[in-house]
Design brief:
The protein is mainly α and about 190 residues long. The protein has one domain. About 75% of the residues lie in helices and about 0% in strands. The longest helix is centred in the middle third of the chain and has 28 residues. The termini are close together.
Length: about 190
């Protein structure tokens, strides 16, 4: 049952985040990809509350996903455990981003940096644990996601705002979450691992 709840939470975390972002963008014709950060959507415009609530809910669902991933996919190696703790903390940081919008500059900035650092570390450590266990597909998928997350962050972007690298850095993590959420659901529905 935990696998089904965690897998569903992982899927919903991404669906909620994307749905909130897309809806808020449709209500924010003033938003400029090359000039703004994504978090400005939680400060300005008529749909700002929806953006913040959506990000907060996605973070809470991510914590549930991390707990299920711990018990079902990462078998217990210390590297994987640290990765799962990092995933839960990164998801909590995402929830905090929704609770403390950009108008609270320092707490918001700390939560944003924590989210990107912790999520990247989590995916990397879970990938390393998979590789240590000889589970090459999960390991390679995880390490590839990390390369893309970091790559999108370090590429110099010809823009004043950070919306594009922020979004692109979230895509590999989101895809990674979806893959392992589906694995959790499949295992829970079939009664296997």
């Amino acid at each position: 049952m935990l696998k089904i709840v965690a897998g569903t939470s992982g899927l919903l975390s991404q669906v909620v985040a994307v749905a909130a972002l897309v809806f808020v963008l449709t209500k924010s014709p003033w938003f400029r990809w090359l000039e703004h950060n994504l978090s400005i959507l939680g400060v300005e415009g008529s749909a700002r509350v929806l953006f913040n609530v959506g990000i907060g809910i996605a973070g809470i669902l991510g914590i549930v996903f991390a707990l299920g991933l711990r018990d079902s996919i990462v078998s217990g190696g210390s590297v994987g455990w640290v990765g799962i703790v990092s995933l839960a903390l990164g998801s909590a940081a995402l929830a905090v981003i929704g609770l403390v919008p950009r108008t609270t500059a320092l707490p918001h900035n700390i939560a944003t940096v924590a989210f990107f650092v912790l999520i990247t570390l989590a995916v990397c450590l879970v990938g390393v644990q998979f590789l240590l266990e000889g589970r090459l597909v999960g390991g390679i998928l995880s390490i590839a996601a990390v390369v893309f997350i970091i790559g999108f962050q370090v590429v110099p972007w010809p823009a004043e705002g950070g919306a594009i690298p922020q979004l692109l850095s979230c895509v590999p993590w989101s895809a990674w979450t979806l893959v392992f959420a589906v694995r959790l659901l499949a295992g829970g529905l079939q009664g296997g691992a």
